[in-house]
Amino acid sequence: MGRVAEIGCIVGLLGWQAECGGRTVVHHLRDGQGMTDRADDFLTIPVCEAHHDRQPFGIHYRQSFRTRTKLTELDLLAATIRALELRRQIEVARLRSPE
Ligand SMILES: [Zn+2]
Ligand SMILES: [Zn+2]
């Protein structure tokens, strides 16, 4: 899960950086749904502590988060996947360019 955390807060990346605070934690999309901890590790998104479970900005306060930002957890997951892919492409490009 290190690679996901390296992205930094995905909510901040999407334009809400002014609210960010604390270290980056990895949120699981099935947090708090009473599922066993066998859920897929790919369903994770990096968020700062403020955007994780702190009031008033945290994604754990689902309704207010969604109302305020118009972002769902699936939007955040899609952005995370895109950011991971972009990082991968940058790494590949670096390996290919002789400097
Ligand atoms: Zn944040
Ligand atoms: Zn969480």
Structure, described:
The radius of gyration is 15 Å and the shape is elongated. By secondary structure, it is mainly alpha-helical. Strands 1-2 form a two-stranded antiparallel ribbon. The chain has five helices and two strands; from the N terminus they run ααββααα. The protein starts with a helix and ends with a helix. The protein has one domain. The structure holds zinc ion (2 copies).
Indicate the structural class.
mainly alpha
Q: Give the low-confidence spans.
A: none
Helix content: 40-55%
Number of helices: 5
The residue-averaged pLDDT reads: 89
Strand order of the largest sheet: 1-2
Bound molecules: zinc ion
Proportion in β-strands: 5-15%
The shape is elongated
Q: Calculate the terminal CA-CA distance, rounded to whole Å.
A: 30 Å
Topology:
Layout: H1 2-6, H2 10-16, E1 24-28, E2 44-48, H3 49-52, H4 62-69, H5 73-96
Antiparallel strand pairs: 1-2
One zinc ion binds at residues 9, 11-12, 20, 47-48, 50-51.
Question: Which key features would you list for this structure?
Answer:
binds zinc ion, two-stranded antiparallel ribbon, 99 residues, 5 helices, mainly alpha
Compact description:
The chain is mainly alpha-helical.
